């Protein structure tokens, strides 16, 4: 079948694309507002975009039409955020951070997660995360109702048992990230991997 996303199906684009373009990594993103209050929210419209400089892309939607979510507002005001990656052990608490709490209420406290001071940005990282990326906002693109935040990765914190500092390779047997699948409630585990060597 062919689906025309420029016509009547335009309003269904989220359901169609979010179900097909999977699995997506999850960015449990921490920010602070101008008063220093912490916000934590998960986003699966997220990925690494390049390495020179190292950049990531994050697309937080609106809380309601024309009203940005706390994450987007905080990044616009402070230009800083931390992407905390999510593994199986963190999945349930990540999900608790997606609750629609009143603005200014700390989702980390709500989910029972531990804030740890970052090295070069004000938002904290999450102690329970297998890896955290301290980021500074590079640019924000607004395309229709979409908001693409491009952040430069300044520091990476990674749990010792999942990373080999000699090869810079992740130890797949110790790292079990989850991926976002179809809306509204589906995720996947990533324990089954296979190798395909590139042809010469």
Secondary-structure blueprint of this entry?
Layout: H1 13-20, E1 27-32, E2 38-43, E3 46-51, E4 54-58, E5 62-64, E6 67-68, H2 70-78, E7 80-85, H3 91-96, H4 107-111, E8 115-116, E9 125-126, E10 131-143, E11 146-158, E12 163-164, E13 169-170, E14 178-180, E15 187-189
Antiparallel strand pairs: 1-2, 1-7, 3-4, 4-11, 5-6, 7-10, 8-9, 10-11, 12-13, 14-15
Helix content: 10-25%
User: Within the CATH hierarchy, at the fold level, what is the topology?
Assistant: Pnp Oxidase, Chain A
Q: What radius of gyration results from the CA coordinates?
A: 17 Å
In CATH, the architecture is Roll
Main β-sheet, spatial strand arrangement: 2-1-7-10-11-4-3
Count of individual beta strands: 15
For the biggest sheet, the summary is:
7 strands, antiparallel
N to C succession of SSEs = HEEEEEEHEHHEEEEEEEE
The shape, in one word, is globular
Distance between the termini: 36 Å
The CATH H-level homologous superfamily: Electron Transport, Fmn-binding Protein, Chain A
Average per-residue pLDDT, rounded, comes to 95
DSSP helix count?
4
